[in-house]
Design a protein that fits this description.
There is one protein chain. By secondary structure, the protein is α/β, with parallel strands linked by helices. It has helices at 47-65, 81-100, 110-117, 125-135, 145-173; strands spanning 6-12, 17-25, 31-40, 69-73, 104-108. The protein contains five helices and five strands. Helix 4 (125-135) packs across helix 5. The N and C termini lie far apart (36 Å).
Length: 175
């Protein structure tokens, strides 16, 4: 990775399927996908074992790719309480592992991700997949959707980082 590059790990949390994407960026427009996929845990395994397996896999992913930044989808709203609980547990693991590894950690809502990547917070999953494919110059749509969503999270961070820096500088100057 070049000295002026930043490596971002995007994580779309889930207990059964946890999407991830590793992206290097030298600028907002020069981005390269390094890895993309899904971590899976069997729904038939006991919850503590699934969480332990996911934690180990997240730790290994962070150790292997050594991102400076981890972008995690913020648990925003779920109709199904069981789904919300499992997504929240997976999200907590991702946040804790990233922080424990010394990564800068950011969360983005689904609408922030869609706005940054597609241009509208109401974009469909297919629109997100098409924009991820275009932005990363992939030969095919990224699949499964969890991996595409993780890549979109990393791309969202790339788009939002300059604004975050400006706000942080402004806050520091006003004190």
């Amino acid at each position: 990775m070049a000295a002026s590059s930043i490596r971002i790990l995007g994580i779309d949390p889930g207990l059964t399927r946890c999407g991830y994407a590793v992206i290097d960026a030298t600028s907002a427009t020069q981005v390269t996908a390094r890895a993309m996929g899904v971590l899976r845990t069997p729904a038939t395994d006991p919850l503590p074992n699934r969480l332990a397996d996911l934690r180990r896999e997240l730790a290994a992913l962070i150790a292997e790719h050594q991102p400076q930044v981890v972008a995690v989808e913020q648990v925003f709203f779920q109709v199904n309480v069981r789904t919300a609980m499992s997504v929240g547990q997976a999200s907590g693991l991702a946040l804790a592992e990233a922080a424990a590894s010394g990564c800068e950690v950011h969360q983005y809502t689904p609408s922030q991700v869609k706005s940054a990547v597609v241009g509208t917070g109401t974009a469909t999953k297919q629109q997100v997949q098409h924009m991820v494919k275009a932005r990363l110059a992939l030969s095919a749509l990224p699949r499964p959707a969890d991996a595409a969503d993780a890549a979109a999270l990393a791309l969202c961070h790339i788009a939002m980082a300059p604004l975050r820096r400006s706000v942080a500088l402004a806050r520091g100057a006003s004190r």
